[in-house]
Write a structure and sequence with these properties.
- The chain is an alpha/beta fold.
- The chain has 8 helices and 17 strands.
- The protein has 2 domains: 209 residues, Rossmann fold; 94 residues, Roll (Methionyl-tRNA Fmet Formyltransferase, Chain A, domain 2), CATH 3.10.25.10.
- The strands form 4 sheets. The protein has a 7-stranded mixed sheet with strand order 5-2-1-6-7-9-10. Strands 12, 13, 14, 15, 16 and 17 form a 6-stranded antiparallel sheet that branches.
- One of its GO terms (molecular function) is methionyl-tRNA formyltransferase activity.
- Its EC number is 2.1.2.9.
- It is an enzyme of class 2 (transferase).
Length: 330
Amino acid sequence: MTQSLRVVFAGTPEFAAAALAAIHAAGFQVPLVLTQPDRPAGRGMKLAASPVKRFAVEHGLPVAQPSSLRRHGKYPEEAAAAIERLKTTPHDVMVVAAYGLILPQEVLDIAPLGAINIHGSLLPRWRGAAPIHRALEAGDAETGITLMQMDAGLDTGAMIREGRITIAPMDTTATLHERMAELGADLIVEALRDLERDGALPATPQPQDGATYAEKIAKHEAALDWRRPASILARQIRAFDPFPGAFGTLEGVVVKIWAAEPVELTGDAHPGVIVQSDAQGVVVACGQGGLRLTQLQKPGGKRLSAREFLAGSPIVKGQRFELREVAPEA
């Protein structure tokens, strides 16, 4: 049966596209999709549509791509036009997932039933831009999705419902992202069905205790500091897969490191020194313990197992990764 609830959707990356696809498949009307403007991407830096835009275009859904929704921001005319379009587009509720633009209170107030955010953490932990990365980096045992009634604060709105996911020992941001996108899609469809039936969704204010901020990932963070414990570096590597990719610098060459595991180490090798190099991996001394690198990539190359990498780019015992942070080429 076709649903009657009308949903304006705002989102940009794959995480959001999964939710939009589920909403569309469930039969809800989507009279407008908001997504960020096309951005340069790939080696040719050609303009590319976001995953959300691609889905919307493929399924005949109207799309708007304002650079801003703030009347007093950098693009006031675009913002005013987008807000006017929202006001003249009949809809009941707005759903937001990783949109990437600030939504002022004026925008949040347009939909009669409010705006629901699909957030990738168990709020109030990891409010902000990079909750999946930061949960992995911090060594959290679990994470999940929180559906939240949006307000003008940064992920501070009342919680509608949540779903939990155990973080597996070898999870990366990429693998966790896939499971969380699927969970978020399921949760929002359930919530919209309840909203259509009941006309409202119960929400609980977030507790003040336990709030943390998931700051946006910066490329410079991906430089591995070998003076840190191996267990922390292993988490950092998993958190930064697929972006921006953790790296070390060996004799002036940036080596991306995609997989690694902590190992016990005897002796007093200085941090960054390679103490073992064979088909099982490259073991690097750290501030505490050692780190066995099992998947590596040199500039312009592909991700390779340690065995494949060493066959073409020998790394030998006694060499040392630099300790100073050097940003890789963009």
